[in-house]
Amino acid sequence: MVSLVGTAVGAGVLFLPINAGMGGIWPLALATLLIAPMTYFSHRALSRFVCASPNAGDDITAVARASFGRGPGMAITVLYFLAIYPIVLIYGVSITNTVDSLLVHQLGMASPPRALLSFVLIALIMAVMVAGQRIMLAVTGWLVYPLILILFGTSLYLIPSWDLGALTAGPAPGVGEVLMSLWLVIPVLVFAFNHSPAISQFSLALQRRYGPAAATRASAVLARTTGLLVVFTMFFVWSCVLALGPDGMAAAKEANLPVLSHLANVHDAPLISALGPIVAILAIVSSFFGHYLGTAEGAAGIVRSTVDPDGTRISDRVLRLGTAAFIFVTTWLVAIANPGVLGLIETVAGPVIAIILYLMPMYAIRRLPALAPYRGALSNVFVTIAGLVAVSGIVYGVVRTVTGA
């Protein structure tokens, strides 16, 4: 549960208040009601897909190839990689911007060369990953508990700054306007609570320990994970939105900073100035680890499927180091380029995550005999609708951006 929470609480959570708050209070209220079942049912279905494999020990890419055949399985493997890899790139941008903001605004230093700063930061995070999964899990466990406590403490600390009037000022929005705002915020909502990159390895770990009972055990762990995430995250989102208001959210989006870094720059409170960047850094680093595992898993699956299907030409060690080098170089280059983070979430990461996390497991439940016991549940209909809404909202946002509408 610690690893899953650490994977979810990252840049998405820190950028979620920006999009959620700009739409007003009613879309945010509806999002708060919907996110718990959306998160739990979708991740449970993905875990069931992995646990249902007849070959114990197969990760999600191997299960996809075995279940759907080589061609469709390869397509799912590529989509899985594309759902997670852009998020690693996002974290490269976010960690660089957050530390640069800390150095300039809180420590009063000159902004260092972006290429050098991003190189050092990404190299430090990658060093933990290359050192081994056990060390990474230990570091994640160390980061997650203080991160949750600091998020909760920050949420409480912001209560005196709440201004409900800023969100309710002006004429009341119509039903259509509220639904439109909710439609457009769902992609960031999906991204913020997404911990699918860790689901494959999480399911395999439970499979090794509990055997046929792995899916049942996974459901219990995922229920607690969802509850923890929704309570702490949505309280944090509401607190930030009420403290900054729509204008503050727009300024944070323009600065391309996590909401806490923006709060530290504009909020006249020493505690927020000190804790804001620290929380942002802890969240990004802890989430980077889980997304790196999924990215490396997807990249290895693509290589094995196309270049070395028998696993005889490329050793696991060479493949692991080659994958690490590829992720490091590309993340560094994107961090230097500094694209808009919310734009990457909405147009690149969001749609593929929705397909892999929401729609693919529902298709698998309808098609695969091993998943037949899970057919006919209302939760399947809910997850399918949520996935279609997320994908359609993302497509609409991309078209609107391209056309300038």
UniProtKB/TrEMBL annotation:
Principal location listed in the UniProt entry: membrane
Record-linked InterPro entries: Amino_acid_transport_2
Cellular compartment(s): Cell inner membrane
Domain of life where this protein originates: Bacteria
Assigned GO CC terms: plasma membrane
A GO biological process held by the record: amino acid transmembrane transport
Record membrane topology: Multi-pass membrane protein
Keywords for this protein: Cell inner membrane, Cell membrane, Membrane, Transmembrane, Transmembrane helix, Transport
PANTHER family cross-referenced by the UniProt entry: SERINE TRANSPORTER, SERINE TRANSPORTER SDAC
Name the UniProt record assigns to this protein: Serine transporter
Organism for this UniProt entry: Micrococcus flavus
